[in-house]
Every structure is written in C-alpha cells, then in structure tokens.
Amino acid sequence: MLTFDEIKEIINRVEQSSIQHFELEQKKSKLVISKVAVQKMPVDSPQEPQFTAPKALERTQNLTEEVTDSKTETLHTIVSPTVGTFYAAPEPGADPFVQVGTQIQDKTVVCVLEAMKLFNEVEAGVKGQIVELLVRNGDFIEYGQPLFQVKTEG
C-alpha cells in the first residue's frame, strides 16, 4: 500500500506534467488521478454542464504511427506503453540499448521506463533500423509519447 507521502509525490508529478489521466493499481488499492476540463455554460441555460474529454483520453488505442516513404521503406514510431522516467541504458555508465543505426528485431529491448521503483523494459515490436531518438535519458515520459523512429522495409 502506498504511503501518504508517496501519493502526494505522485499527485505533484502529475500536476506538474501534461499527463491528463494516471492510474496505479496495487494488490488491494487503486489510485486514479484525472484532470478534467469543465466547459462553463451560461447561468440561465437549462442545459446541463458539458464536460470535455482530456486530450490524453482522446488518443486512439493504436500505439504506433507509420509514415510511408516513396520507396518501400516505412518509418515506424515506437511509443511509450506507460508513464515513467526514460533510461537509454540498463544501468548508469552502461552502453545504451540502442543508438541511431542499430538494427533491431521485434523482441529487442530499446529502453527502460521506471515508475515507482519498477523498471519496465520496452521492446521494439518491429524489425528495422533506429533512425532517430526522440527523447533524452532521464526525461519523464507520458503514455503514448513517441520514443524512437525506426526504418522498416515493406
């Protein structure tokens, strides 16, 4: 179970970020933090207030984007499956998992995301070559945020 100070720290981090919705579920507890924008209606209006969905919730469930080149090459974006701190290497001082030019397979670990002292390996999910790193080591990452561009051949 989370301590009060841990919950307070999570709330502060969510408030200071552009994250719109955060959920953490542990054994017998669940923490849900959601930022919802309220649309104000005129006082004399008989309608109920309408709520607008946060942008983070409007994202599609598809976690990949593809852009087709004039050749048979495709750029695939590897995106974050969760929120957390991005680490390019398995430990401080170690070589990064991948760099620009690295050939990858579906199961290649491309980075680690740390949240609440849990380190989650992120696999490429695609075969190809890393052509661009879109984040820096130590950056706080949002769910669905682009991490890498990969050149695949179709």
Provide an overview of this structure:
- It is a single chain.
- The protein is mainly beta and about 150 residues long.
- The chain has two domains: about 5-60, no CATH class; about 65-154, RNA polymerase II/Efflux pump adaptor protein, barrel-sandwich hybrid domain (OB fold (Dihydrolipoamide Acetyltransferase, E2P), Beta Barrel), CATH 2.40.50.100.
- About 10% of the residues lie in helices and about 40% in strands.
- The protein is built from two helices and 13 strands; from the N terminus they run αββββαβββββββββ.
- It has helices at about 5-15, 55-60; strands at about 20-25, 30-35, 35-40, 50, 65-70, 75-80, 85, 105, 110-115, 120-125, 130-135, 140, 145-154.
- It has a five-stranded antiparallel β-sheet, with no helix packed on it.
- Strand 5 and strand 6 form a beta hairpin.
- The longest helix has 13 residues, at about 5-15.
- The protein is elongated, with a radius of gyration of 19 Å.
- Mean pLDDT is about 75; it is low at about 35-45 and about 45-70.
How would you characterize the largest beta sheet?
Answer: 5 strands, antiparallel
CATH class of the largest domain: Mainly Beta
CATH architecture of the largest domain: Beta Barrel
Give helix % range.
10-25%
* Principal-axes shape call: elongated
CATH-defined topology of the largest domain:
OB fold (Dihydrolipoamide Acetyltransferase, E2P)
Structural class: mainly beta
Strand content: 35-45%
Number of helices: 2
